[in-house]
Amino acid sequence: MLKGFANAFRIPELRKKILITVGILLLYRFGAYLPAPGIPFSDMLAAYQNAASTSGALAVLNLFSGGALSRVSVFSLGIMPYITSQIILQMMQTVIPSLGELAKEGESGQRKITQYTRYLTVVLATINAIGYLFLFKSYGIDFSGMGIPEFLENLIIVFVLIVGAILIMWLGEVITQRGIGNGMSLIIFCNIMSGLPTALISSVTTSTNGMILTIVTFVAIIFGIIPAIVYIERGQRRIPVQYAKRVVGRRMMGGQSTYLPIKVNTAGVVPIIFASAILYLPAQLAVFFPRVGWIQSFANAISSGWLNWVLSVVFIVFFAYFYTSMVFNPEETADQLKKAGGFIPGVRPGSATAEYIQSVLNHITLPGAIFMAALAVIPSIIFTFTSNQLIQAFGGTSVLIMVGVAMDTIASLESQLKMHNYEGFFK
C-alpha cells in the first residue's frame, strides 16, 4: 500500500488532484473553526451544550457539520443543505416529467439540474441559518459583539452562514471535478473523522466502565463491522453473457463468454446519507420553534428512539431501491447487449432480458439494503442502553460512510494508477 501511495505522487496529474483535495479539506476544516462575526465563543459553547442535552437531533447535526455548529462558525450549516437539495431534485425527476426528460438530455440537462440544485441549496441554507439564529437566541446568547444595531447583526450572521453553505457546495464540486472525486462524500468523511478524538476522550472519561467499552467498541469495529462492510461492498452477482459469432469484414468477431457484474450494494453509502438527511430535516425545521414543546418532541422522536429506528430501516431500503433504479437501467443494458450480439443463456434477447436483469437486481438489492439498515440501527439501540459517546458518534452509519468513502476513493486512485501502468494499492 505504501508503494501505491508513492506511485500516486509520481504521476503529475494524480499528484495535482490529491494536493487539491487535501488543500480543500484543510480549508474546509479551517472554516469549521472560524467563528461568525459577533459570536461570544465561550457563551456559545455553553448554550450549545444546554441545547444538545435536550435535543439529540442537534448533537447529530453537529456531528455531520464536523463540530462547526457548536461554534457557530462560518461553515455551521455543513453539507446538509446541498445533500437535501440533491434528494429533492432527484425525487422530483420521477414526479415532474419535464425534469425527468431534462435528466435524459445528457451533459446539458445535467448542468441545468445542477443549477437548480444550487438555487435550492441557497433557499434551504437561508431557512436553516435563520432557524439556528433563533434557536441560540432562545438560549439567551447575546450577539452584540459588533456594536451595531441588532437587526444588522442578525442580518450579517445569517448572511455569513449562507455564504459558508455556498462555499461548502462549491468546495465539494471542485473536489469532484478537479480533485480525486466524491467531493460530497469526502466532506462528510472529514466531518465524521474530526469528531473521533473528542468522542474517544468523552467515552473514556464520562461513561461507566468507559475504557472497557471503548476497547470493546474498537475491537468490534475493526474485526467485525469493517470486514462485513467490505464483504458486502465487494459482493456481486455475475450474470453469464454469451456473444454470438459474427463476421465483420474479413474477421470473425464474438463467440466469447463473459459476465455482467451487478453489485449487491449498487447504491453504496448514498441511501444512508439520504435517509439521514430526511430524518434530521424535522430537527433542522424545529429550530424555528425552540419553545414549542410538541414540535421539539416530534423532532427528537424522529431523530432518536424507536421511531427513528423504524423509519431508518424504511428509508434506507427505499433509497437503496430508488437510487439503484436511477444508476442502473435494465432496459438500456438489455438493448446494449442485443446490439452487441450478446445474450443471457436461456433468456430471450430484448424485453425478456430486461425483465430478468430487473428481477436479479430486485433480489440482490434487498440483502444489501437490510444490511445497511441493520448497521445503522443496531448501534443506536446499543447506545440507548450504554450511553457511550463513542457508539453514538461512530455507530454503524458513521463507520459505513467512512469505509464506503475510503473504498470508493482508493478504487478511484487505483484505477488511475493502473491506467498509467503502475501497481495499485493492493496486489
Question: Can you walk me through this structure?
Answer:
This protein is mainly alpha-helical. The protein has two domains: 194 residues, SecY subunit domain (Preprotein translocase SecY subunit, Orthogonal Bundle); 198 residues, SecY subunit domain (Preprotein translocase SecY subunit). It has 20 helices and five strands. It has a three-stranded antiparallel β-sheet. The longest helix has 36 residues. The protein starts with a helix and ends in an 8-residue tail after the last helix. The model has no long low-confidence stretch (mean pLDDT 77).
Concise summary:
By secondary structure, the chain is mainly alpha-helical. The protein contains 20 helices and 5 strands.
Task: Tell me the name of the CATH homologous superfamily of the largest domain.
Answer: SecY subunit domain
What is the total domain count? 2
Enumerate the spans where pLDDT stays under 50 for 5 or more consecutive residues.
none
Between the first and last Cα atoms, what is the distance in angstroms? 9 Å
CATH architecture of the largest domain: Orthogonal Bundle
Beta-strand share of residues:
5-15%
Q: Element order, helices and strands? A: HHHHHHHHHHHHEEEEHHHHHEHHH
Average residue-wise pLDDT: 77
What structural class do helix, strand and pairing data support?
A: mainly alpha
Named CATH topology of the largest domain: Preprotein translocase SecY subunit
Question: Quick one: how many beta strands?
Answer: 5
Q: What is the CATH C level class of the largest domain, in words?
A: Mainly Alpha
Output the radius of gyration. 24 Å
- Principal-axis shape: globular
For the biggest sheet, the summary is: 3 strands, antiparallel
Can you give the helix content as a percent range? over 70%
